[in-house]
Amino acid sequence: MRESRSGRRLWPALAAPGTLWLLALFAVPFYAIAAVAFGYPDPVFGSPVPEWDPRYWDFTLFTEVIQRSLTGDLRPVFVRTLLFVGLALLLCFLIGYPVAYYLARYAGRRRGLLLALILAPWWINYITRMLAWLSLLQDDGYVNDVLMALRIVPDPVRWLSGNPYTVVLALVYGYVPFFIVPLYATLDRIDSQLLDASRDLGVGGYRTFLHVTLPLSRSGLMTAAVVTALPMFGDYFTNTLVSGSPTTTMIGNQIEFYLLGGSRKEIGASLVLLLSAMLMALMAYYLISSQRANREAS
Amino acid sequence: MTRRPVVLAALTWLYVVWSLVPVLIAIQFSFNDGRSRSTWQGFSFRWYWGDSGSVASDPSLRLALSNTLQLALLTTLVATPLGVALALGLTRWRGRTSRAANGLMLLPLATPEIVMGSALYLVFTNLYTLIPLGRTAQLLGHVTFSVSYVVIIVRSRLHSIGAEYEAAARDLGATPLQALRTVLLPLLTPAVLAGALIVFASSMDDFVISAFLSTDASSVTVPIKLYSAVRTAPSPALNALATLLLLGSALALVLAWAVLRRRRGVVRGTDRAGGSALREMASIDV
Q: Quick check: B279 and A102 CB within 8 A?
């Protein structure tokens, strides 16, 4: 397109306010995490003072936090977080795949309605969705009523006091819509002629799924896993709501505890950095492998 | 298809039931005539108004509701123009700085809320100390995570419009600014509206950023209130509050969907609009 001088100035001028906003309220705040984590204690009060000049950054506390996370008292928290998120992702896959697959391949005329219903929880406030389960899972709630009426359990299950299964299931309930939608988008794009071809060649439905559909949905599965794992790793509210017990503490709870609860904000900041580094590694792996997949496809 | 996949269909509908029925039950109990959240004692509006603990009478619930609405409204008013301008700028402006700005715009979408919340909390308590934690900080935080939504929605619309209309206006003697104002912006209106409504809904629903940036009772929003009260002081009034929140965001999203749907109908003419507008909304958060 033809560009005049005023045009050359117009577009950067339009982009400037938003960019400056994001610099001031996204980039600088992110830097502030590092400044606090690598800062120093106030000589009089002992409270953390941020160090804005990277030349004077002090990494001793950060190394200490890493050590505590690898071998010390924070290790169980990290292991538990990985375990909970891993289990939750597995369940998301087991629940989400059939739903996304049905929606993409067989929903037919009902697809619009089903899609709307599946998207609905996405837009229902997360805390509201947890609140709904909190009443159902009370000692005298509907879930225990049903379980006892069916004689599956003799006494009410104590779901809401530090039960790790409740936390994992709550995470699944909270985030599985985020898993289904990107997976559905990928499955929807798979050419059904490929599946027909496989069937024409005499391959059974099960093996077609294993050797054609599943490999073709790899990229969607990766996206789904990343989109679900990122918020799960940082989640603290689900845990507080359905458990509230130190026996199920995750990284997010520790971050919230140190940053908002106590006076050791620099430890909280270090944990945020550690978590961010983990998630960035995850993102980088995802981006690199999806790029590779794209290159192979083309 | 030859066989009807009965098992898959059953699983899917079971999933839908599992994902929505608990919320429907929670809504039902907002109309309970008694205090219980697990035993139905008849229908009543007492938790909405009338009862001293109802949303209309309890000052803390009323404050949470008005805080949430104000915050969502202000966020929409600030984030929408900011995002529209950024989308226009990033789409038409080429160069290295533009690519960097584009990367900066995408980053908030991939940042977990707890990281963004911690970052904003630390910057307001350590660097931008002129702005105390509370409602102003919450507004700034909400705008920050909302701008990118607007950019994504408006930009996808910009791509589908293409550069021809603008080029035609320019050939007829319009300056870039005139072409933008008289041709591009009217064509963009539906996307801008949809973006604004989605910002409104996501601001109302936000919990983490609001919680990290709130100080005391004066900056409590509905999600914060639900979170803090549900274990300490459960009452059907909380369900009523949650129901009102749900109604608000549902209204905003149905409007956004209708706007996106209409716009498809107008521009493409033939598109069977509903499903694709939904699909578009599905892709927004990713």
A: no
